[in-house]
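Exam prep: given the inputs below (a chain plus 2-OXO-4-methylpentanoic acid), describe the expected output before reading on.
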Amino acid sequence: KPLPFGQLRTNHMFLMNYSEGEWRNPRIVPYGPIPLSPGAMCLHYGQTLFEGVKGFKHDDGEIYTFRADQNAERLNHSADILCMPQIPVDLQLDALHRLIDVERDWCPSMPQSSLYVRPFMFATEDALGVRPSREYIYCIMLSPSGAYYSGGFSKAIRLLVTQKYHRAVSGGTGTSKTGGNYVASLKPAEYAHSFNAAQVLYLSADNSTIEEVGSMNHYHVLKDGTFIIPEFNDTILRSVTSLSVLELGDAGVIKARQEVIRIADFLEGIQNGEIVEAGGFGTAAVVSPVGEYVFEDGSVIKLNDGKVGEHSKKLYELY
Ligand code: COI
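Solution:
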């Protein structure tokens, strides 16, 4: 039976408190409930953020995290947007390494599995004014996990192209990993499920360009093998996986670049054979091929006969 995503826990977690302008009392404690006042500000106004990192067991028996420094920097980017305190990158990495060291036996080693690391921060001050909290908790928990989509890499998913829901607006919180961006995706996901799709493909607020999928960035592949990722703007989350693909492009290992992608051009590209594969990039999703797009009128467009394509496969194996 494959490992589920994000269901299992390990025995310990990392905790640290913020008050009077300082991070205090870093500690590793047994995994368990955290006391919280009913007036804790995270519960009322959603001052929360999270990250996702993966640790992999390599042949030398050691656990390697995938670019955790990038996630630590992105956490600080989210914190800035959400008026939450910064955590020095070195402090975040030290916490993560110490916790993984204690829990090293929990890292799975079967294909498509990893030790999923979930750092998060939330506002704990007991106050009801709408303003930034003066107190926070930073926590890291671990989850031995399998693939995010239950079919794993080998099964291409279906996305619903919707004009009904939008993920974020310019000037909003779209580039931060805050809970609010994810609760906003639940209704669209239910709507997607009613079309037998796993998720929605979000378009820009004016429905003209491709944004992202919510749990991952979007990509497509041209017939010459070039990976195209939507140009980042202030409504698309900067996926560390996408950044890594673009860096592989810069280094000449693969062909990859970013573009503003009009949905009309994308669909035309599929019809005329210029676009041969598509999918999503994310920490949890890794490389998740998309085989079908369904539309609100019920029509369906297939890519690569609905199957995982060779370019996506090669990239996944490179990862
Ligand atoms: C990730 O870790 O890739 C995430 O964005 C969280 C995911 C479960 C939606």
